[in-house]
Amino acid sequence: MKDYEVVIGLEVHVELATKTKIFCGCSTAFGGAPNTHTCPVCTGMPGSLPVLNKKVVEYAMAVGLATNCSITRDCKFDRKNYFYPDNPQNYQISQLYLPICYDGAVEIETSAGKKTVRIHEMHMEEDAGKLIHDEWEDCSLVDYNRSGVPLIEIVSEPDMRSADEVIAYLEKLRMICQYLGASDCKLQEGSMRADVNLSVREVGASEFGTRTEMKNLNSFKAIARAIEGERERQIELLEEGRAVVQETRRWDDNKESSHAMRSKEDAKDYRYFPDPDLPPIHISDAWIEELRASIPELREAKMERYQKEYELPAYDAGILTESRHLAGLF
Ligand code: ADP
Ligand code: MG
Ligand code: ZN
Q: Which class for 160: exposed (0-12), middle (13-18), buried (19 or more C-beta within 10 A)?
C-alpha cells in the first residue's frame, strides 16, 4: 500500500452567548417548552422584519480579533435560500459576500510542536429550529426555540493533518470563546458543532484530493472516530482504483460508520442575494479599538505569566488556566 496523508479543514459553528436572538428579542435560553421562545420574526411570519442585535457583532469581532483575523469594515447579510421545515422563512440570513472576519490564524500544540492553523473567514448567521421525528406517532414535530439563535461559523483552511490536530484546534477555539464569554461551547448541547471536510492524498502529492464533508459530530470522541473511519474508507477507494465522490456524509457514532446524505451543494445552488431587510453594517476604527481593549488576557498569556510571576510549574499553570473562572479565583 502507498503512503497516504490526510488533509482536513473544519467549519465550526458556535452559538453566541447573547441573552436574545440575532434578529428579535426572544430568549436564547437552552431547553424551554417547545415554541415558547418565539415571535413572528423567528417563526418567519410574512411582514415581520429583522433588527440586528448589536452584541452579536461585538462577540463576532472579539472572536475574530482573538484569532488574529482582519475585520471587514463594511459587511452585510445575505439570504441563503433553501426549503426545509426547520427553516420557517425558507431562507437563512447569513453572510456570503462580505463575512465579518477573514484571514486569521491560531497556534495549536501538537506532538511535533507548535503549528499554525489558518482561518479563512468567520461569518454571522442565524440558527435553524429543531425537528423531532416521532416514530410512535409517525410524524415530525418542529420546535422553533433555536430558530434565530446567533451563530458564528469559523471556516479554517485545510491545514490539519490528523485527528489530534483537529481536537487541538477545536479546544483552542473553545478556550478562546469561553475566555471571551462569547459562548459556552458545549458540544453535547450543540452550542459548538463541527463539520469535518476530509480528503486523502499520496504523501508528497502537490494537489489535494477530493473531499467529503461529515456532519452530525457531537463529541471530540465522535470526531476522532469519524476521521479515522473516513480516512480508511477513502484510502480503500483509492487503493481499489476508484474515485472519492464529493458529498456530504452523516456519521453514525453507534454504528461507527458514515453514509452519504446528499451530493455536495455549491454556493450557486442557494441563490444567495443581499438581504434587503437589513442595512449594511459599518464598523469604525473606534469600535474595533473598543473591543480590542475589552479582550481579557487569554489562556496562553496567563499561563506564561503565572509561570514567570509566581514561579508555578507549567502543569499547575495549565490546570489553573483551564477555565477563566478558576484563574479568576486563583
Ligand atoms: P464550501 O463553501 O463548498 O463548503 P470551501 O472551499 O469553503 O467549500 O471549504 C469548506 C471547508 O473545506 C474549509 O474548511 C476548507 O478548509 C475545507 N477543504 C477544502 N478543500 C479541501 C480538501 N481538498 N481536503 C480537505 N478539506 C478541504
Ligand atoms: Mg461549507
Ligand atoms: Zn423571536
A: buried
State in Å, rounded, how far the first CA of the chain is from the last one: 53
Distance CA 327, CA 250 (A): 38
Nearest ligand 1 atom to the CA of 264 is 3
> Cβ(11) to ligand 1 under 6 A?
yes
Over residues 116-137, the pLDDT tens digits come to 999 999 999 999 999 998 878 8
∠ CA 240-245-250 to the nearest 5 degrees?
A: 110
Cβ atoms of 235 and 200 within 8 Å: the answer is yes
CA of 294 to the centre of ligand 3 (A): 29
The answer to whether 213 and 250 are in contact (CB under 8 A) is no
- In terms of pTM, does the model score above 0.70? yes
Joined grid coordinates for residue 188: 453535547
